[in-house]
Amino acid sequence: MYNSYELNESVRRALDLYSQSMIKVAFAYLKNITDAEEVAQDVFLAYLQKRPVFENSEHEKAWLIRTTINKSKNMLKAGWFKSRNPVPEDLSYLPKEENEVLHSVLALDKKYRIPIHLHYYEGYSIQEIAVILQAKPATVGTWLARGRQLLKEKIGGLEDEEICL
């Protein structure tokens, strides 16, 4: 267990290291930056309340991302959330190529969108994603392959070209 100072330092370090990744994961689920930031805050509040002890920094990051996913799913189940508006079309602050790719990724079904985000944007391996999403590695590989195929159909590309996100 932590004393107060150690807990505060641990949370501060995690906030610096992982908050952007957590917000991106939540955004992949919720498609709204404000809601994604709220989920990240809720996760850090849970961190403070539960005071988990981690084996290493990878274990800590995996716990934070898994908790972010769970809290994002809970928010999606909430009745007030279902009556909200979709992603705004104005993402003009992004370069044109990124805007098109982001819209295409966000338009994917959740089972393809989340693994693609974790793999390409967060740098997780298929095995790590399988642990985070509580699925078999073969299933995650299938989701990634199908998601890439759907993106290729939407965005286009050369026949032998791989999609680079």
Structure description:
This protein is mostly helical and 165 residues long. It folds into 2 domains: 1-87, Orthogonal Bundle (Rna Polymerase Sigma Factor, Chain: A), CATH 1.10.1740; 95-164, Orthogonal Bundle (Arc Repressor Mutant, subunit A), CATH 1.10.10.10. The chain contains 8 helices and no strands. It has helices at 4-30, 33-50, 57-77, 79-82, 96-107, 110-121, 126-133, 137-155. The longest helix has 27 residues, at 4-30. It is globular. Mean pLDDT is 80; it is low at 89-95.
List keywords for this structure.
Arc Repressor Mutant, subunit A; transcription; transcription regulation; sigma factor; globular; Rna Polymerase Sigma Factor, Chain: A; WH-like_DNA-bd_sf; 8 helices; 0% strand; 2 domains; mainly alpha; 165 residues
